[in-house]
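ok so dumb question maybe but i'm new to this and my supervisor (M.) told me to 'just get the structure for LytTR family two component transcriptional regulator' and walked off. so i did the thing. is this what she meant?? sequence i used:
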Amino acid sequence: MKALIVDDERLARNELKRLLENFPKINIVGEAANAEEAVELIDQLHPDLLFLDIQMPGKTGFDLLTDLEGYVPEVIFTTAYDEYAIKAFEFNALDYLLKPIELHRLSEAVQKVEEEFDRQKQLTETVKDNTTVLSENDQVFVKDGEKCWFVRLGNVRLFESMGNYVRLYFDDQKPLVLKSLNALEDRLDPKIFFRANRKHIINLKYIQKIEPWFSGGLQVTLRESGDKIEISRRQAIRFKELLSL
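this is what came out, is it supposed to look like this??
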């Protein structure tokens, strides 16, 4: 699997590369000294995995992940500070390695990566067996705990990523389903459902108001609920092209 190392310290990058020589399945395709360089390399190389430092000059590792749109690699944080661990796992990190990195901890992290990629491969094969794009008129069965719904997709105004789950918003309901937002995006009709940012897919027919937002982005207000969703700067370009604004 392709890996990208993001760390502002050259010696730390070299030491991690040395340790990773013990794991032939990890192919280091590049390295970056800051978040800006990393974003460009992620767009170019589409790595499967980031070894990501948190404290860097300029933007932090968390800022980097927030800036990513659409494609987001798996992440193992590498840092000298333990106080960011809880926040790291809010970003769905596979592991959190404290510097100086010990070989046995790196081995545990790599094993988690391999297990996650095996799981994703199985999911991908399942999706390939059922690749029909779902339209707004299709109905889907949703189960959350003891509650069940048979929902017309056109009635879902918003999909929100919650770790390994997605929350669906329709009527006054908001159940969770065990599915990634990326996998769900692959199944939804792109003429109706739009990936607004890393965490949200919106139903275009529910947009009530569009406003300019920070850094060239947009903010949309959804009718009925009044939810305000930010469309990131990168996605705002696609959004304007899609709606010919």
